[in-house]
Amino acid sequence: QKEVEQNSGPLSVPEGAIASLNCTYSDRGSQSFFWYRQYSGKSPELIMSIYSNGDKEDGRFTAQLNKASQYVSLLIRDSQPSDSATYLCAVIGSGYSTLTFGKGTMLLVSP
Amino acid sequence: DTAVSQTPKYLVTQMGNDKSIKCEQNLGHDTMYWYKQDSKKFLKIMFSYNNKELIINETVPNRFSPKSPDKAHLNLHINSLELGDSAVYFCASGVSNQPQHFGDGTRLSIL
Q: Taking a C-beta distance cutoff of 8 angstroms, is the pair A86, A107 a contact?
């Protein structure tokens, strides 16, 4: 059973702070890793993809991947109230083209 | 110009009825998916079709039957609806190990 684990939160940070979201996965052969953002009542929206070890930056977002530790994280710099949402970690495992999602971490950014 | 579109957006019906949800994508993707998101917000794969062929069928009651008339369409028919079927159903499309794009969801409520 391929699993993706996230803390459900809520993670509360003040506006302007760095929010750090974490995810671990069980399938050591996984190759593709994604972070989706889901606002309440809306569909998941892709915000970051990462495929190799290290950091990948896109604007205020940085995804970090450590395959040896089977760990993916998402950093959001200068957090804004509009970043308040549930963040879903998703992994495509070995020999499989479907996404396995974590249960999501709710982020609350207070003004 | 919507990439993945689902209809209807809301579906309210009585226990025991049969209903269908339609999905269409204009992204040229070969693979389409159905996901179920329950009241705890956990997003779980139900089915995956590649070029009209079923490739993933997770543990889903056989009251749920997907149909893909062509690679741009994947419909979901549900027979004998039960209270536990109340959820949001998301259609998605993608290519190989690339991220998937989601429709807006169909909110199914069983009375």
A: yes
User: What average pLDDT does chain A have?
Assistant: 93
The pair of structure tokens assigned to B38 is: 């329950």
B39–A contact, CB cutoff 8 A = no
User: Can you tell me the mean pLDDT for A49-61?
Assistant: 96
d(CA A41, CA B47): 22
CA–CA dist A101, B33 (Å, integer): 14
Residues of A within an 8 Å Cβ radius of B: 31-32, 34, 38, 42-46, 49, 51, 86, 88, 92, 97-101, 103-104
| CA-based nearest residue to A105, from A1, A31, A11 | A11
Q: What percent of chain A has pLDDT over 70?
A: 96
Q: How confident is the model at residue A1, as a pLDDT?
A: 65
Evaluate whether A19 touches A107 at the Cβ level (below 8 Å): yes
Q: Tell me what pLDDT residue B58 has.
A: 75
Helix/strand/coil for B91: strand
Decide which of A33 and A2 is more confident. A33
Work out the number of other CB atoms within 10 angstroms of the CB of residue B87.
Answer: 19
| Contact between B104 and A98 using a beta-carbon 8 Å cutoff | no
Spatial CA neighbour of B80 closest among B100, B42, B40, B110: B110
A34: chain B residues, CB-CB within 8 Å: 99
How big is chain A, counted in residues? Answer: 111
